[in-house]
Design brief:
Strands 5-4-1-6-7-8 form a 6-stranded parallel β-sheet, sandwiched between helices. The protein has a two-stranded antiparallel ribbon with strand order 2-3. The chain has 8 helices and 8 strands; from the N terminus they run αβββαβαβαβαβαβαα. Strand 2 and strand 3 form a beta hairpin. The protein is globular, with a radius of gyration of 15 Å. The chain has one domain: HAD superfamily/HAD-like (Rossmann fold, 3-Layer(aba) Sandwich), CATH 3.40.50. By secondary structure, the chain is α/β, with parallel strands linked by helices.
Length: 174
C-alpha cells in the first residue's frame, strides 16, 4: 500500500477509458438505433471533486458517442478523445502537450487495448471485472466493477493520498 500511495502522490492527470470503466461495458441500442449507456453518478461526482483538487481529467476511448461527449461536458472534462482504437499516440501527444511526466499520470482501463498505456503510467488501475491480462498488470484492482464505483475508488485514493479528500469532506460536513 505504501508503494501505491507513493505513486498516487505524484498524479497530476487522470485518464480514463469509457466502456467497462465509466460504464458496465454493455452497449444498449434502442429500436431507433440510438445508443444508450449508464453512468454511475458517484463516479461522476468523484471526477468533479478530483478536478477541484487541481488534477486534470482526460478520456481516451476507442468508440465515438454523442452521449459520452455530453456526459464529459456535464463533468467539465477538458480532454476528450473518441474514436481512438490505438490509444498510445493520443496519450503521448497529450502528456507532451501538458508537459508532464509519465509518473504524473494515472490511467484506468479494463481491456487489453488499454495495456500500452497502463504499462507506461505512474499509477495504473482497473475495475474488478477487467480482462485477466489487465488485472495481472495494474497497480490497483478496484473492489468495484466498471460503471459501479471503480472510478470513484481510484479518484478517492489519489485525493486522500494528496490530502484533498478531507477538504471535500469538511465542505460537505459543515
Amino acid at each position: 500500500m505504501d508503494k501505491l500511495r507513493t505513486k498516487a502522490q505524484k498524479i497530476k492527470l487522470l485518464l480514463l477509458d469509457v466502456d467497462g470503466v465509466l460504464t458496465d461495458n454493455r452497449l444498449i441500442y434502442g429500436d431507433d438505433g440510438q445508443e444508450y449507456k449508464a453512468f454511475y453518478t458517484r463516479d461522476g461526482h468523484a471526477m468533479v471533486l478530483i478536478q477541484k483538487s487541481g488534477i486534470e481529467i482526460g478520456i481516451i476511448t476507442g468508440r465515438t458517442s454523442e452521449l459520452v461527449k455530453k456526459r464529459m461536458q456535464d463533468l467539465k472534462v477538458k480532454h476528450l478523445y473518441q474514436g481512438v482504437p490505438d490509444k498510445l499516440p493520443t496519450f503521448e501527444q497529450l502528456i507532451a502537450q501538458l508537459g508532464i511526466g509519465l509518473d504524473e499520470v494515472a490511467y484506468m482501463g479494463d481491456d487489453i487495448l488499454d495495456l500500452p498505456i497502463l504499462r507506461r503510467v505512474g499509477l495504473s488501475g482497473c475495475p474488478s471485472d477487467a480482462d485477466p491480462e489487465v488485472i495481472s498488470r495494474v497497480d490497483l484492482v478496484s473492489k468495484f466493477k466498471g460503471g459501479q464505483g471503480a472510478v470513484r475508488e481510484f479518484c478517492e485514493l489519489i485525493m486522500k493520498t494528496q490530502g484533498h479528500w478531507q477538504a471535500h469532506m469538511d465542505f460537505y460536513l459543515r
